Amino acid sequence: MEKHNKFSRRRFLQAGGATLAGSTCMPTVATANQTQQSVPALQRLLRSADVPAAKGARVIVVGGGWSGLTMAKYLKRFNPAFDVLLIDRQSAFVSFPVSNAWLADQVKLDFLSHSFFDAANNHDYHFMQASVLGFDHESRKVYTDRGYVDYDYLVLAPGIEYDYSRIGVEDSEAQNLLFHRYPGGFVTSSELLTIKHKIHEFRRGVFLLNVPNGDYRCAAAPYERACMVAAIFKQQRLRAKILLLDMNPEIKIKKAGFTRAFEKLYGDYIEYLPSSEISGIDVEKRIVETDFEEYNFDDAIIYPPVRASRLIEEAGIANPQSPQKTPDTDPFKYHLPDDERVYVTGDSRSQPFSKGGHTAHSEAQYVAEVIAAHALDKELQWRSPQTMCFSAVDIEPLKAMSIITYYRFNQQSHLFEFDRTHMIEKWDAQGGQASLAWAEGMYRDMFYS
Q: Which of the listed CATH numbers 3.50.50.60, 3.40.50.2300, 1.20.58.220, 3.20.20.10 matches domain 165-306?
């Protein structure tokens, strides 16, 4: 007998087929009243947004994450004549890097939270809170829910979205239910608040976490989160088990360090299961199905594979062959192949660099310089972004390990690969303090200095 409310690909296809077979096409007729009500909204979309008039070449940056914030600042630094406008739908910034330490009460929320207004005021650019709906190449307009804005250059740094279809959850209603009950914690700040409540209110049983496959936001973060949750449970002496399902064949980064933490610190708490490809989830019965087993859980943080923001796909620039819907861009200059005035950076870009905060920050500085050089009809030699990543594994005191790496382009394979990698897989309190000092320095650069 099929499980009730189990959101699997097979059931969705069956249900979808039955619905289509039994439906009839009925036209939707808008009443005069509905049409009149929609006119102001349409007029708002098609009018010029209420922003200050550009005093130079306008560069619009879409997305106020680590990439967008860094981009906006350094565009002005490399070309003060630019008129830079940063657009984000959120009213304030909350950092995902270091959020695992916040979940474990090692830092306060105001350490992660910062004002877009402060960043704009301190770095001499404009900020507009709005949702970007699309853009037009030919007229060079960005359309938002507050109207359109003309641009000379456009930088798309809209981040990522979850792709629940890759864990067998196809139906949009089912995806929404899963997102709100068991959020992954890598897209919105509300997810983090829900996750922290989950962790600190948990009393006993199986707490499930997972590691997605493919390129996802911060390769080490799911393993770090498992350690932070285990540290809390251990501190509270709970009768609980953390089931960590890794959709990869092994730990993706800092393998020796995380393996040692799982065994030495949390042997009584963490059960790590690699090669656990999630293929379906029964939200009501709290069951996760993999290709070979089913696992019951009492609560969970479910981090599905990720994809580029739908803005990329809806703009018609996503590569249809890309499983993560990333765009085709110049691998060294980041612009669209047919448009050197539109760039894609951060987690939605196609280059296989880390989707971590430091990488986005380093990369954005380079691309800002590329755009400034293009405006002056100059060329800039490619340079690799830098990835620096700290991973906490214990608390009281906070202890962490780290990695620093660059990238190089292999001329024979035509692929990017790691270069000049320095990894410290021994965690200690000095590493923990270094992780906080690093984050403080990043926030200072993006918002204040």
A: 3.50.50.60
